Amino acid sequence: MVDIDGIPPERFAAILTLVKEDIHSFLVYITISGCGIRVISHVEGGVTKANYRMVWEWVNDHYARLCGVEIDGQCKNATRMSVLCHDPEALLRPEASSFHTSGMKPREKPKRGTAVTVTAERAYKIIRAQLEEEGIAYAPGSYNDYVSRCFYHTNRYGVPQADAEAWALRTFPDYPREQLLPIIKSCYSLTMEFNTVPLPRSVRKKEKENDSSHKKATVEEMEEFINGYMKFRMNTLTHQIETQLIADAYTDRPEASACHWQRLTDHIENSLWCAMQHHGMAVNLNELHTLLGSDFVKEYHPLKECLDGLPPWDGETDYIDRLAAMVHVKESPHSPLQQDKSRERNDLSETPVRFADILKRWMVSMIAAALNETVVNQVILTLIGRQGSYKTSFMQHILPPVLSEYYTTKSNSSRMTKDDLFTMTENLVINLEEIDTMPPSELNQLKAMVTQRYVDERRAYGRNKVHLPHVASFVATGNNLQFLTDDTGNRRWLPFEVEDIDSPWEADIPYEGIYSQTYALYQDVNFRYWFTDKEIQQLHGHVQQFEVPRPEYELILTYYRKPVGLERGVYTTSSQIIGRFGNTSLRLSLQKVGRAMRELGFRQVKASNANYWVVVERTTEEVQHLLPAEAEQANPPGEKPSEENTELPF
C-alpha cells in the first residue's frame, strides 16, 4: 500500500492521472481527507518478514519517482489498513502488472560525504530550538511570523518544497491551508538561498537540550493555556463536549470574528494538542483527553439556559393559544378535555376536544421530560391532513430558533434501530413523518420506545454501555385519516385532523411569550400536564375516528346488543361468535373477539366449562335497518380492564 500525501493542489489532478495510468496500479482512490491518493499493488515472488521492508521501499520509491513527491512513510507498517473512502472515480484494474521480488534490491546506504536530502521533520527539530531562543513561539498573535520564519529556514537547510508543504499540512492542521501554502511558496521563491546552510551536526545534542527544556506541563498550565485558546462546555442534553475558539487567540486570522460553538471532534482536540506542543508544552494527548473529560469542562443545558433567560410570564396572556390558533383543525364530535382557565383545577368539560388545550399540556410535558429525567412524555401529538398544509413545517417551528438543532425527523424505514434510541436521548422533539405508512410492527416498536425511560446501549465504537435518560418528545404527521392499527389500544396518540395551517415561515411566532408561559405552567404545582386514566378513556372516542376499522367490532355491533333492564339475554362464547361468521374471509381470533366484547361493555359470566358473554341477538329486521351510530349508542364502550386504570405522568 502506497500513501501519497501533501500533494500541491495545482498538481493533484496531474499526479492522480499519472498514478492511474501506471500499469502496476491495481487499486487507486482518493483518501478520506480528499487531499491524498492511496495505491494498492500486487507483488509476486513471496513477501516475508525478512524482505518486507525492501519490498515496501521498492514499490514506494517507484511511485515517488513517478510522481515527483515524497511518499508517506507511515504505511511501512505491515499491518497498516485503510478506512473506507468514497471515491466515485476510483480505479480498479484486475489485470494490473505485479512487481517481482526477484528484481528488487535494498536501498543503498549513502556513502560518507554524500549529500543526504534533509527531511522537514529532521530540520524542524533544529528550527524549533532556534526560534525558541529568539523568543518566537507558535502562539496567539504570532502564528504568521512563526510559520514564515520556519519555512525560511527549511529552504536554507535544503528541505524540498513538496516535503515542506506536506509536513506543514500535517503539523499545522489548525492553520488555514489557503494561507499556509502561499507563505511556503513565498519562502521557497528565494531559490538562491536553497540548501545554502548545512544542517548543524549537533542535532542529537540540540534535541537532548530541547527535550530537557520541555518539562512536563502541569494541569494548571494546561488549563491556563486552554482558557486563552478555547472555551469548552459539556452539553448535558446531547452528552457531548462543545467548543468555541476565542477570537483573541486568532487576531491574525479574518475568520476569528465568526467563532461559534461546535461539537468537539478528534480533529479539534488534535489541533489543540499541536498548538500546545508548538507553545513548548510537553503534554500527552491522553492527559489532554482526561482533562477535557473532567469537571474542568462546566456543564450546560441549552433548554434550561434558554428558559432561565426569559422574562417572567404575565400570568394572563395565553401565548400557547395563539400558537395553536395557527392550526385549523376539524372539530371532533367527541368531548373530553378542556383546561380550566383558572389553572387551579383540571376538570373535564362536555365540550369538544380543543387542540389548544392538548397542545398546552403536550408542550409543558416536553419541558418536564427534558428537565426532569424521571419524567417521560408518553403521548404523541399528531397532525393528519392533506399534503402541503404545513404540518411538518408547524412541527419544525414548535422549538424557537435558538433550540432548532434539537429537532429531528424520522421517516418510515420499516424498522427501529439503535440510532433511533440514542436520538431520544439528545433531542427535544422527534417528528415521525408519514406515520400513516408505518407498518404495524414498527408502530409496536414505537409504542415501546415512547414509554422507555432510559437507553442502555453501547454506542458505535464505544467500549461500554451507557445509561442515558429519554428526554425527547414525539410528534407525528401523515396524510391518511385512519392510521392507527393497534387493536389493543391507542392511548399514546393525540391525533387531530387538519384543515389548514397558517404558514409558520411567514408568521411572527411569539416564542419568548410561549416559552415563558410553558415554563411557568411547568413550575405551577396546580397545573397537571399529564392525563389521568379517566381522561384517557374519555379521549378514546376522539381517537377512534383515526383507527383503522376493526371487522370484529363492526360485526358484533351489527348482530348483538346488550340486554336492557330486566331483559334476559342468551349465553354465547367467543368461539361461537367466530363460528357464526366463519363463512366470511375475515381473520377473527379468540383474542380479538374477547377484547372487542370487553370494550363494548358486554357482561362476562364464568362457568366451570367456559366463559360466556350475555348478549341479545338482533333480529334480521334490526340488522337491516340499524345504522352504525345507533349500534354504538346501544353499546357504549366500557372501561378497559383494571390494569389499565393508572395515572400516566409523561
Automatic annotation (TrEMBL):
Concerning Pfam families, the annotation shows: BT4734-like_N, VapE-like_dom
Region spans: Disordered: 629-650
What range(s) does the BT4734-like N-terminal domain occupy? 1-91
Q: Where are the transmembrane segments?
A: none
All copies of the Virulence-associated protein E-like domain together span 357-545
| Stored PANTHER family | SLR0554 PROTEIN (PTHR34985)
**Name assigned to this protein:** Virulence-associated E family protein
* Record organism: Phocaeicola vulgatus str. 3775 SL
